[in-house]
Amino acid sequence: MRSFRELVEEAVAVDVSGWDFSWLDGRATEERPPWGYAGLLAAALADARSALDLQTGGVEVVDSAPTLPARMTVTEGWPPNAVEARKRLGPRGVQVVEIGVDDPLPFADGSFDLVTSRHPVRTPWPEIARVLSPGGHYLAQHVGPESAFELIEWLTGPLPAHVRDGRHPRHDRDGAASAGLVVDDLRTARCRMEFRDVGAVVYILRKCVWWVPDFTAPRYAERLLDLDARIRESGPFVAHSTRLLVRASQPG
Question: Fewer CB within 10 Å: C terminus or N terminus of the chain?
Fold first, then answer.
């Protein structure tokens, strides 16, 4: 394995824009939830007449669907991802709307019979309910509670109870119900993650900036050095992501 300095310098220099994680091939792995969200999304989009994907990210999952509805719209708040969305989805007739995660959705009531989202930062339940047509559906994969906390807390120390509870599935159940939606399915999966060198850790923390918001390699150099030593001595650092499958519907 290369030196600590070489691994960190490489990970600091690499481009982390977009939502492609192929740089981690051979250096980190993450188990996938058993339900296969990409397949569920593709099937739902093929059956929809109009669909809205919220906080679409790098659009890899939406773009992987063979068939898109006649009216397909995505929203994205981070400019580099919005550029990527227009490049990849524009030729497929998809409208890309650049708005922040807390902005009201600029669509009329009942505009879509399907709303989807993969790993939204926040879930705007009242707005989702508003833009769904009667009988419409919400299909999403959310990040669950304490996701990757083994790694996050390695750097930050123990997080407070309210942060650990922040993405508990009951919040989605309560949020959907309070917006007038019926929760049809809510499942949880805990998925193993392995980081095989400290460069992979630096890369993921630069890309997923909300994990450790003040992260820089120099700021956390001491903890990264300790982590590097642990990986060299004991093998890959193991953490666990948690994922929620959420299905809800608008009474029709």
Answer: C
